[in-house]
Structures are given as C-alpha cells and as structure tokens.
Give the backbone structure.
Amino acid sequence: MNTSVNAATQLAIDTLIERAPESTKLAAAFKAAGFKLALVGGPVRDAILGRLGNDLDFTTDAKPAESKKILEVWADSVWEIGAEFGTIAARKGEIEVEVTTYRSESYDLNSRKPDVQFGESIEGDLKRRDFTINAMALELTTTPPTFLDLFGGITDLQSKLIKTPGTAEDSFSDDPLRMMRAARFMSQLNFNVDPSVIAAIKKMADRLSIISAERIRDEFIKTLMSPNPRLGITLLVETGLADKFLPEIPKLKLEIDEHHHHKDVYEHTLTVLEQAMALEDRLAGPNLTLRLAALMHDIGKPKTKELIPGGGVSFHHHEVVGSRMTKERLRTLRFDNNVIKDVAQLVFLHLRFHGYGSGEWTDSAVRRYVRDAEDLLIHLHLLTRADCTTRNKKKADLLARTYDQLEDRIVALMAQEELNKIRPDLDGVEIMKILDIKPSPVVGQAYNHLLELRLEHGPLGVEKATAELLTWWRARN
C-alpha cells in the first residue's frame, strides 16, 4: 500500500471515528453475525476529504432481512423503503445509515426501472458504481480496517477528476442518470470531467429519456444547489444533455442580448445566477426558488426576439412568455406546485423595477409592487439586483442606489401602514351590512373597489371608506 493510500485510509478512519463513532459498533454487530460491512461510495470520498456528513452508506454480504435484524438492535429506528433494491435504512442519534447488500444493477434499454441482482463480492459491487471517486470502500470488519481502491479513486480524487471505473459507455448504459451526476459532482466538488466521460455523454444523451422526470429533477436540483452550479450547467449544455430535459437554457445561447452587452443571453443568465447566489444571505442561505428564477428569468427571449429597424434587438413581453414557459417546464419536471407558482411569479415580475426610472413611482405604485410580490418580496429584491450585469460601473452603481431608494421607500411605507398586510378599510361583513345585501359576487366587487382606493390613497379610515362605498353603490345602481 503506497503512502497516499495509507494516508487516505488513516484520514478516512479518523474522520469516521470522530464524526460517527457508533459505526464501529455497527461493524462489530455485523461481524459477530458472520457478515462483512464496509463504508462505501460518497462517504468514503468525503471522509478522505475530511468532511464526512451524517448520512452514511454501507455495503454488506448480508441479505436485506439479515441486515434488518442487526439494525433493529443497533438503531433507534429502522425502515425498509429500499428493501427491494437491497437497502435497509436506519437512524442512530444524528446518524442516518443505508446498508445495501452487494449488488449489480442495470437498466433495460427501454425500462425506467433498474434490474437489481445481489452480488457475491464487494469487488463486483464497487465495479458497478458510477465514478472512481465513489468506488472506494473501507472494510470495517477486518483488523485493521481494509481500504479498497480497485479503480484509482485516490489518484482521481487528488487530481480532481471525474472518471468511470470501467468504460463510460458501459456505466451510462447501466444507469443513464450517471451522466447528470457527472455534472453534479463537477459543481459540488469543483472537479474536472475526464474527456472520455464527456465524449460518452455527447454520444449517449438520448439515453436519458428512459429516466423518470422525478429522478432527473432531483439530480438537477443537486447541481443547481451546489457551490458552483455554473460548472455543471455548462457541462449539461455543452454535451447536449440539457436539450433533453431543460431545452430552454441552451436555446439562450442563440440570442444576442444587446441590452446587457453580453455575448449572449445564456452567459448573462449564468452571471445572474451567480450574483443571486452572492445575495442569498438575506434568505438565510441557498434558496431553490431564487436560483430557479435566476436561471429561468430570460427564457422567454428566444420566442419574443425582434430586430429593431436601424439596428438592435427587442424582447417585448418576454417576462410574460417566460413565466408561462417556466410553469410548463417545471410541471414537466414534476416540481412542487408551490415552487412552480413562486418561480413563475418571479419571472413575471423581474422587469417591473425598470419602470421605476429614477424614483418616479407614486406611493400607490410602490404598494402594488409589494402586493404583487407578496411573500416573494425579498426574492424579487435579490433577483432584480442580480439581473444587473452591465460592465459599466457608473450605470451599475446608479441602478443599485436607485433600488436602495425603492427598498427604503418600501420599508418606510410598511412601517406606516403594515404594507405587507394590505386590506380595504372595510371587510366583507361590514360591506354587506352597510349596503344591506346578502353574500354575492357584488360583495367581492365592492371589496376590490375599496382595495384599489386603499392602494391608491393609503388608509382611508372607516368613515371615509363607508362614504366611498356608498358613492360607488349609487353610481352602480
């Protein structure tokens, strides 16, 4: 065993003992029952990097039923949601583990469900894994623990390289979702992808069609929520993989964005995403809704592009078209309905601030801005700020100061009026009593009339609101 492997083994063991000491007891329990147990995959990689989390993956020669018996003694809770695939999960304190029987799995050419077969050795189990950096294992039931690296994972980890244990074509044929995982690990770890892997993705991108929308969505979210999503998104676009599940993004490459003076809308979009991420502290950390909105905010431009006589390009109403396209795409990818609604609304509103000019909005216009944003006001603040990617520093500084002014006005109005809870001065019950009418659509019409007055003029008070209501009622009748 060479020096680098020795050092990696020791670091993995030390990290495991420090972060998950109960795992040694689990290994002892499997050994006492006559079975092997090894930490495997991503947790080994992360242990070597010194950043092990609370989710641990193990592999064993024990069958699922046997693993379940051992885990029921060791753990606080056990569940077998993945038993058909050989996996039993359990929780012990803050540690969550998955114990999987040695296996080999592959997809039929036209099936979305893997064919899982239990294997006889850990060597066979490791060979089936996605990438070399995830094909290392730490056998815990030997003394001392045995480090297994059959495919050069340590070397690739040190080289920051994503490679497959066998040929990339075989790996992606077994599980096409691994093509997306390459992009995810690229973004999460800041690694490069081996040219053979890139070539295989370009060749086999169509194979993604057999993977369910839910699995594609979950893998893409991991890329988008990583520390450096630009890397993964770039790989997805340049290999043609994005065309298969998110075609709106590569299509942005075709559009020249004269307004932002970028090479294309695609580059502008990635910059907006990165700038939005830099502002996420106001949302208490990484935020899926904001990142999706940043990525999708200009997808309506290709469909709305028009050449202006005399030169230039316009994208009139691209926010309206883009909002509709966003809903359609996120529904296709089976995103949560609330996420779909919120992201689409942010895309719809992302240009609203440009009507503010240098501060010409009336207070009623500011109220409408807040009302339309509702719970997404902070998201909209951040998206709007991130959407400024001009290289002209004076222009960028002016836009930032102007938006500071708008935010200050919103804070002041909220302090005066609790703007985020705007309601008419009279509620439905009071409207019916004053007008002596029963519940009907007319009550809603009266309510909306008073709401518009409230937005336009601020609080009216009950007396003035009553007078305005009666005036409206007389004119209506």
